[in-house]
Amino acid sequence: MRLKTKPSLRPRRRYVAFEVISEYKFSAEQIWSAICARIPIVGYNEIAEAQLRFIEWNEKRQIGILRCSHRKVSIIRVLLASISKIENKVVGMRIIRVSGTLKTLRKKLKEVE
Which residues of the chain have pLDDT under 50? Predict the structure, then answer.
């Protein structure tokens, strides 16, 4: 049986939806490797504190969701904005929305369609 932690002790998280703008299609592994390659720009300590996680990737729409700490959203924005090439193909990264819950973020992404 798993013990539940009190809401006051749980880490506050934010979910960042982003879009890759390119004429090419990319897989989740390619996107994650591009994100990991840019980590030295913001620093390993910052990323460790951000508790960055790749949640999901829609290959058809080229939209992904990252999870991070509520205090490090700006660092994640900088990290995504610094990506200009993925496997030597020019891309643009656009932050669509930041939300406190995954359910709300997915709902808002469906409205954007």
Answer: none
Phi-psi domain of 62 (left: phi exceeds 0; alpha: psi -120 through 50; beta: other): left
> In the chain, what are the domain boundaries?
13-112
Amino acid, res. 89: K
Distance CA 20, CA 14 (A): 19
pTM above 0.85, yes or no: yes
How far apart CA 52 and CA 79 sit, in angstroms, is 11
Q: What is the CATH number of domain 13-112?
A: 3.30.70.3250
pLDDT tens per residue across span 38-58: 999 999 999 999 999 999 999
